[in-house]
Amino acid sequence: MDLSNLKPAAGSVKTSKRLGRGQGSGRGGTSTRGHKGAQSRSGYSRKIGFEGGQMPLYRRVPKSGFKNINRVEYSGINIDVLSKLAESKGITVVTPLVLQENGLLGKGDLLKILGRGELKAKLDITAHAFSAKAVQAIESVGGTATKIER
Length: 150
Prior knowledge:
Layout: H1 57-60, E1 74-78, H2 79-89, E2 93-94, H3 96-101, E3 110-114, E4 124-127, E5 129-130, H4 132-140, E6 144-147
Parallel strand pairs: 1-3, 2-4, 3-5, 4-6
């Protein structure tokens, strides 16, 4: 066997329609485009979303919603998660970088500490935002809550 013997699998290659090659081909004359009208001309392209004159979907469906471009999105992490992390890894200082290294925060995400759960260890936490309950829980154990400016 060599390269000259190779052929594609049977039925895997279809021959394309050869249009406009005379009446004997069965696809001459109008070349399967029908008679007259825009669609029979060269250079015709249908508008995106055109539905044959029916009111298109993008016009039938009402407009809705609003996207605030000034919205600041935080990744929230609860105190109980930090407590588990401190126990398992022996961490006393929590920063966004430490949480990134442990897979709890994405790169470039803003961090907000939330108050669910109970904090047992004294932690020094640095984040972009804190909930009031979280600050109270951190300070009640003797830790510090430091806010970073974005």
